[in-house]
Amino acid sequence: MKKGWLCLIMWALLPVCLLAQNTPNRQNDNIRLSREEFQKRHEAYITKYAGLTAEEAAKFFPLYNELQNRKNELNDQTGKYMRETWGKELDENKYKEILEGMSANAIASENLERTYLDKFREVISYKKIFKIREAESRFRQELVRGMRRPGGNQGRGGAPEVPDSPSNDRRR
Predict the structure, then answer these.
(1) Residue 124 burial (10 A CB sphere; 0-12, 13-18, 19+)
(2) Is the dihedral of CA 73, 12, 1, 116 positive or negative?
(3) pLDDT of 76-108, one tens digit each?
(4) Cα–Cα–Cα angle for 124, 130, 131, nearest 5°?
(5) Tally of domains within the chain
(6) DSSP secondary-structure letter at 169?
(7) Is residue 58 included in any domain, yes or no?
(8) From residue 115, how far is each of 66, 98, 110, 112 by CA, in Å?
């Protein structure tokens, strides 16, 4: 269950990272990525890191994007629950209702992960699925690192560069 909450929190933070990337940089105001460009870089990063062939990527990413869209819907619902409480004092039953809704969304998100694992396995190996999970984590870490640097991801256009290879990227 802790893993499910962690996944939910990480995916809930991704839109924040995306929005932060579209915020003008004080030192270089012209570095911005559209959502489509960000997605292309994300897919390129995952493809290269996991060693997907063009055929595998063509079959995998429609499923992957479908999963992400469905999980984003759940995350949006969870965000709506949170916004309902901001600046308000609610009764105990309302808090219970909100927490149960958030918990149900986390469980639904975990169930989606399990369902799509089977779908992913139809087009790529378990090893590559694992590498994709690892790539997602590294991509998010690099986004956060870039946002912490003075000037953000300056020179990188708002998203991590595609790694040379997974084995060369083990220094962290």
Answers:
(1) buried
(2) positive
(3) 999 998 888 888 888 999 889 999 999 999 999
(4) 90
(5) 1
(6) G
(7) yes
(8) 12, 26, 9, 5
Is the full-model pTM beyond 0.70?
A: no
Residue type for 89, please? E
Domain for residue 7, yes or no? no
Pull the structure tokens for residue 108.
């639904």
Q: pLDDT tens digits for 17-34?
A: 554 555 444 444 445 778
Domain membership of residue 23 (yes or no) is no
Q: Is residue 20 part of a domain?
A: no
Helix (H, G, I), strand (E, B) or coil at 88: coil
Q: Provide the residue range defining the domain that includes 95.
A: 39-158
